[in-house]
Amino acid sequence: MKLHNSFTNQTEEFKPIDGNKVKMYVCGPTVYDNAHLGHARCYITWDVLYRYLKFKGYDVTYCRNVTDVDDKILKKAEKEGKTPEEVSKFWYNKFTESMNALNNLRPDIEPFATKTLGEMIAMNKELIEKGFAYEAGGDVYFRVKKFGKYGSLSGQPIHQLESGARIEVGELKEDPLDFALWKKDEKFGYNSPWGVGRPGWHIECSAMSRKYLGKTIDIHAGGADLIFPHHENEIAQSECANGCKFVNYWLHNGFVTINKEKMSKSLGNFLTIDDLLKNYDANTIRFFILTNHYRMPVEFSDESLQAAANGVKRMLNAKHTKIDETLDITQLEEYKEFVEAMDDDLNTSKALAVLFDLTNKANKDIPYAFTLLYKLANTLGFKFEKAKLSEEELKHKLDSINAKLNESFNSMEDIIEKRRIARSEKNWDLADKIRIALDNAGIILKDSKEGTTWELKN
């Protein structure tokens, strides 16, 4: 399995530190507002990596933090007349609902920043003792120039960074490049050796990663917007405090753009997950994201979401057969093609092509096809349920059927009952007309001992 390492800018063979165990950390949300499509792109991407690593047989520990102490949370709390805890709890619950709605698996560990303050203070003390950090007026800063490799992840030499560095009013930095590990905050802060304050954003992830996964981890992932300064600063403070390499594989997903601009709250061009789910189901959003390589930008449009909806409908309408749990899928050629695609830096676009090939084979009654399709689709996080018609789509089909039969059916159940009565009365002409009208509308009936059901054709 090969993954593109942002640190080396090379696609490298993935080799875990400890045999079959994989320690994976993903930067989680700052909980102060609705999650948007950009968050969906990020967390679906790493959900697929998590699922695929487990599919490959790795013993994965997935840690994704929650930033529940931050300037944005404090501003929202003041604006709404609430405590920061009330704001962060409310939006964390909303975030969790959004992730569940997208069918993302819960991380194995989901630590909160406010519950890991002791570890952050301890790491800051270590950095001060080693000379990599200093206290100034109740703040604590990291000495960037003491870490010779600073800028290696983002590819920005120190002299380039210096030109844009500034010291803001009230800051007591030794150098404009230095960044905050701890901020004085007598109103919303916590007790520390440097007075009442709160942690800087960057130290949170370093402390939580070390606490729950150890000093050196296999994979650290997040959005490309976090490369600098967040991940650059994480490397500096972690490696200086721990005295060893922090991360073996840095992975980053590309932006979501609208009209070629990055989607962001600051630009006001973001679409919330809740709003998206009013028009598109979770499978469609996931399909839209996975048709693009995770490192590339994704351009949002209603046309692309509609194309994704059609693709999902085609796949989920594959002819269903009973899942064969005895089938050794590893011996099947399509399985090998799927693994080859995913092993190539998560080439989900090629993996989806394999699923469509299996869809066609399932519809041709090739025995193993649906079992393999079901298992591989689940590995990518699709809920394998039959596609459903919207109320408007169903009404359109009923109107079409009524016109052909000169009837006024209000539901599919009415039609099924009419057909049942016709067959019981041996009125084969009417029963046949109903079947033909349904077929023309793209609907097939399935008769069994339990009764008759209907589903969409491909």
Strand order of the main beta sheet, please? 4-3-9-10
Name of the CATH architecture of the largest domain? 3-Layer(aba) Sandwich
Shape: elongated
In CATH, the homologous superfamily of the largest domain goes by the name HUPs
CATH class of the largest domain: Alpha Beta
Strand content: 15-25%
Helix residue percentage? 40-55%
Number of strands: 15
Structural class: alpha/beta
Which fold name fills CATH's third level, the topology of the largest domain?
Answer: Rossmann fold
The parts where pLDDT drops under 50 for at least 5 residues are none
Output mean pLDDT: 93
The termini sit apart by: 34 Å
Search tags:
single chain, 458 residues, Rossmann fold, Four Helix Bundle (Hemerythrin (Met), subunit A), 16 helices
